[in-house]
């Protein structure tokens, strides 16, 4: 087995190939190559890795991940956490790498959860008897002023028509009572 660098080790490697998603870097001292994904090439957005590196360039990289997949060891490298001029570690405590990992994992699927809406307008408070709110939201003091929602224009017209109808029926009832006497 070839001697691989330790996790989070910094070394200088040579660019072997450049693809649209990143660049493969030859690891010194072994025949393995590691991938610098285009998101780890620079702290700025990289659309084309070929604009950043060319085949044969020497670059400073940090080994940020080792993964066994299909009986092959895949190595992840990063250029953005290493100063390309001096090889100095710009993220010695791996804080930005942890933040990048957290960003990838924060997506949650909420499609199975149902959203329920409460129809408040047609409710009557059990505490004060007014329309438009629940007892838990009621702020009426015992013996105090009662408040309810201002009715819409249509509701006002319907209430006025109902009042007129009630008034006419009460007048008709009064006149029939007078006749009986």
Automatic annotation (TrEMBL):
Listed GO MF terms: RNA binding; zinc ion binding
Q: Name one GO biological process term.
A: RNA stabilization
Q: Where is the protein localized?
A: Nucleus, Nucleolus
Name the UniProt key words of this record, in alphabetical order. Answer: Acetylation, Metal-binding, Nucleus, Phosphoprotein, Ribonucleoprotein, Zinc, Zinc-finger
Name the Pfam families on file. Answer: S1
Q: Does the keyword ATP-binding apply?
A: no
Ranges for domain S1 motif:
8-80
What are the Basic and acidic residues biased-composition ranges? 162-181
* Superkingdom of origin organism: Eukaryota
Residues annotated as region Disordered? 155-181
* InterPro entries per the UniProt record, alphabetical: NA-bd_OB-fold, S1_domain, ZCCHC17_S1, Znf_CCHC
Major location category of this protein: nucleus
Keyword Cell cycle assigned to the entry: answer is no
One GO cellular component this record assigns the protein to is:
nucleolus
Indicate what this protein is called per its UniProt record: Zinc finger CCHC domain-containing protein 17
